[in-house]
Automatic annotation (TrEMBL):
Lineage, uppermost ranks: Bacteria, Pseudomonadati, Bacteroidota, Flavobacteriia, Flavobacteriales
Gene Ontology MF annotations: 3'-5' DNA helicase activity; ATP binding; ATP hydrolysis activity; DNA binding
Protein's UniProt keywords contain Flavoprotein: no
Domain UvrD-like helicase C-terminal: 293-575
Binding site for ATP: 28-35
InterPro entries (UniProt xref): DExx_box_DNA_helicase_dom_sf, DNA_helicase_UvrD-like_C, DNA_helicase_UvrD/REP, P-loop_NTPase, UvrD-like_ATP-bd
Name of this chain's protein: DNA 3'-5' helicase
Species this protein is from: Luteibaculum oceani
């Protein structure tokens, strides 16, 4: 068995797997097997007799962790794989904090605020402090606070730090520190942590409680970190503290793929490794197993333009592969059509599935034109990021009920549902409650429970409404730890009135919302069942589900059963691979982004991003740019990205003279490019009886017998096209028609309503 593992590795990878003791850093190019090394190393450790409980593996997404676990399970068995501590930094340390929260004065059922909760709270604070929300833009405030937390700067330190204060004054935002402090306290009162807190508080815990640190050092005797180049300071310190005792630490990364500096990732962590572990070993992997030679070489030619790079020669024994195609479009819509058509054609040519395709873009807003084009020709797709299931209003509403039941001090959950479904508790009442909570330094929940005691000046009628709400939550709370997750969720959905409210809304949107809520309940049922499958004695509670949901990342919301094209930002594509990659919007001021072009280090980060994008492709990479596109509501004319020029010409097909068809797209007025196809000569002409006369649907359209291979037809939705094949037997005769606008379609002649035009 053991030798089986090692034969799947080249000598350098093998060394990285076998050298299990001491500090080891693998710095290697994209697709060279870093993640594979981690997977095999864990399996190998277990085969060597290491208890899986003693292994901690930190991945970039939960999905990566899940995949890794599945592979490991194949080698060492389910039981062993299950017991490894594996997940993202946030998910692993959130679980640890659940056990240890009371030490740092948090309840063990603390809520995790997502980015929208944080924004909502920051907005409230900005208003309360009477600051101008155009100067104190919530996104800027949020990222400033996040930056501080990732560098382990508390509000107190923030306010005392002369340089930070000078920076904020210079930027015209002297009150940032005050906002941070208030935000910090409000989260604390609400028993809530945001994402950055999960790392910050873990650091505090490990710093201030030596026996706790010792406990986890002793547990995590072997630590492995994927995508090490994108760890931030807070993550770096956690790893350093935990590994200090045994120093069995293996990190893998690629400095050329460091793309999260804007969120505090610190490339210095790679350079510090040498200082922190002077006896460390460094292994370089240079053979790429993922991509064609063309893709590897093209990616190398781009990244060689960066000055700050650790030298490595990435090469591959894979086939040479096709050149990278560059497509020039007149508009974003035309670019979308090109991508959709190409996917359609490639999928047919190579008999591949839609899962083999990914479209990558620099900004989420670019997905709109792509989605439209894909929808037009019925290509199923899935967007990572954007408005995911868990960000929908009705889902967030029900989750807020769950959260409040679990932690009634959760301020954001309270605000969200106190008057939903409507209970006649209006804004004035909420303002009074909030004011009293702030003045008395307590939570909204406390005040709501005894408005009289806090002199809220709320009339008896409203008080009764508040009381009936708090009574309901308290009664649900009393059952929270008794009921199983699904039953509890269902009970909350019913008693809150939310299910009924949605059920009564018979508009199509209302019906969809009701179904979504049912879907959430199904999800909880499934969650509980999976937990029980893994551990027969587990009695999963609703709070376990809440933790799971709070820690989902974009890439985790994947349903592998469905065949769909993936759409995502390049940032979200890290670590993934697809046979066919489309990188769209290769334009100056979009990619590289406008904000990056004036600073060399920012531009280098954009270039690394481009390197990440190209290296996701296994077989084929296609790049495109539009000479005009709608951005922020305006039509913008743009130049091709400088990164296109940086690709070595040897590996690229520049836009060739493309044939334009006569089909014009109504919305943009732009022409659509198509490939010329030669339909087969007419043959197999089938005689078909006329459809029954008088069928009104057929009146203006061709009789089935008029349809022959090679003729030109027109379809109401797909436009003009040419018949390339006829199959089947009546009454189910089908014509395959090539429509320049949408590619090839197979149509049932009975229903197709084709007009013969030549
Ligand atoms: N020795 C090997 N033999 C066969 N296939 C390999 C070998 N090493 C890696 N691969 C395959 O190459 C592909 C890339 O590997 P992997 O994802 O581990 O690379 P990576 O270095 O983590 O890439 P990235 O930098 O993009 O995260 C995977 O499909 C993997 O299974
Ligand atoms: Mg990887």
């Amino acid at each position: 068995m053991q030798s089986d593992i090692l034969t799947g590795l080249n000598p350098a990878q093998r060394q990285a797997v076998e050298q299990t003791n001491g500090a080891l850093m693998v710095i290697a190019g994209a697709g060279s097997g870093k993640t594979r090394v981690l997977t095999y190393r864990i399996a190998y450790l277990i085969q060597q007799g290491i208890d899986p409980f003693n292994i901690l593996a930190l991945t970039f997404t939960n999905k990566a962790a899940k995949e890794m676990k599945e592979r490991i399970a194949l080698i060492v068995g389910q039981e062993n794989a299950r017991n490894i501590w594996m997940g993202t930094f946030h998910s692993v340390f959130a679980k640890i904090l659940r056990f240890e929260a009371e030490k740092i004065n948090y309840p063990s059922n603390f809520t995790i605020y997502d980015s929208a909760d944080s924004k909502s709270l920051l907005n409230t604070i900005i208003k309360e402090l009477q600051l101008d929300d155009k100067v104190y833009k919530v996104s800027i405030v949020q990222s400033r606070i996040s930056g501080a937390k990732n560098n382990l700067i508390s509000p107190k330190q923030y306010l005392e730090n002369v340089d930070i204060q000078a920076d904020d004054r210079a930027a015209g935002r002297p009150k940032l520190g005050a906002i941070y402090q208030e935000y910090w306290q409000r989260c604390f009162k609400a028993g809530a942590m945001d994402f950055d807190d999960l790392l910050f508080k873990t650091n505090i815990l490990l710093r201030d409680f030596p026996e706790t640190l010792l406990k986890y050092q002793d547990r995590f005797r072997y630590i492995l970190v994927d995508e090490y180049q994108d760890t931030n300071h807070a993550q770096y310190l956690i790893v350093k503290k935990l590994a200090a005792r045994f120093q069995n630490l293996c990190v893998v990364g690629d400095d050329a793929q460091s793309i999260y500096a804007f969120r505090g990732a610190n490339i210095q962590n790679i350079l510090n490794f040498r200082k922190d572990y002077p006896d460390y070993s460094l292994i370089k992997l240079e053979q790429n197993y993922r991509s064609t030679q063309t893709i590897v070489n093209a990616a190398n030619s781009v990244i060689s333009n960066n000055r700050d790079q650790i030298k490595k020669e990435v090469w591959t024994e894979n086939d040479q592969g096709d050149r990278i195609k560059i497509f020039k479009a007149n508009s974003d819509n035309e670019e979308g059509m090109f991508v959709a058509q190409s996917i359609f054609e490639l999928q047919h040519q190579h008999h591949s599935t839609f899962n083999d395709f990914a479209i990558l873009y620099r900004t989420n807003a670019q997905s709109r034109a792509l989605e439209e084009a894909l929808r037009k020709i019925n290509i199923p797709y899935k967007i990572y990021g954007g408005l995911s299931f868990y960000q929908r209003k009705e889902i967030k509403d029900l989750l807020a009920y769950f959260r409040l039941t679990s932690n009634p001090n959760d301020e954001e959950a309270f605000k969200r549902i106190i008057n939903y479904p409507a209970r006649g508790i209006g804004k004035t009442t909420m303002d009074k409650l909030t004011l009293a909570a702030n003045e008395n330094d307590t939570s909204l929940w406390e005040v709501a429970n005894s408005p009289g005691q806090y002199n809220c000046n709320i009339n008896a009628g409203t008080r009764a409404k508040i009381e009936s709400f708090t009574t309901m939550i308290k009664s649900l709370r009393s059952e929270l730890h008794k009921e199983d997750a699904y039953l509890m969720a269902e009970k909350i959905a019913k008693s809150s009135g939310l299910l009924k409210e949605l059920y009564n809304d018979k508009t199509p949107e209302g019906v969809a919302r009701y179904e979504n809520v049912q879907e959430l309940l199904n999800g909880i049922k499934e969650f509980a069942e999976t937990q029980k499958e893994q551990d027969a004695e587990a009695a999963p509670k609703l709070e376990d589900f809440l933790l799971d949901v709070a820690l989902l990342t974009d890439a985790d919301q994947d349903n592998e059963d469905e065949e769909r094209v993936s759409l995502m930002t390049i940032h979200a594509s890290k670590g993934l691979e697809f046979p066919y990659i489309f990188i769209v919007g290769m334009e100056e001021n979009l990619f590289p982004s406008q904000m990056s072009v004036n600073s060399r280090s920012d531009l280098e980060e954009e270039r690394r991003l481009f390197y990440v994008a190209i290296t996701r492709a296994k077989q084929k990479a296609t790049l495109s740019y539009a000479t005009s596109r709608f951005r922020w509501g305006n039509l913008i004319y743009s130049e091709p990205s400088r990164f296109l020029d940086e690709l070595d010409d040897k590996y690229v097909d520049w836009p060739v003279q493309m044939q334009r068809t006569q089909v014009t797209e109504k919305r943009t007025g732009g022409a659509i490019f198509t490939k010329k196809i030669n339909p087969p000569k007419p043959k197999n002409l089938k005689k078909i009886p006329r459809p029954s006369a008088g069928n009104p649907d057929q009146r203006d359209y061709a009789n089935v017998e008029d349809i022959r291979i090679g003729i030109q037809v027109e379809h109401g939705t797909f436009g003009k096209g040419k018949v390339v094949a006829i199959d089947g037997v009546e009454p189910n005769l089908k014509a395959t028609v090539y429509f320049p606008a949408v590619g090839q379609k197979q149509l049932l002649l009975r229903f197709a309503k084709l007009r013969v035009i030549g």
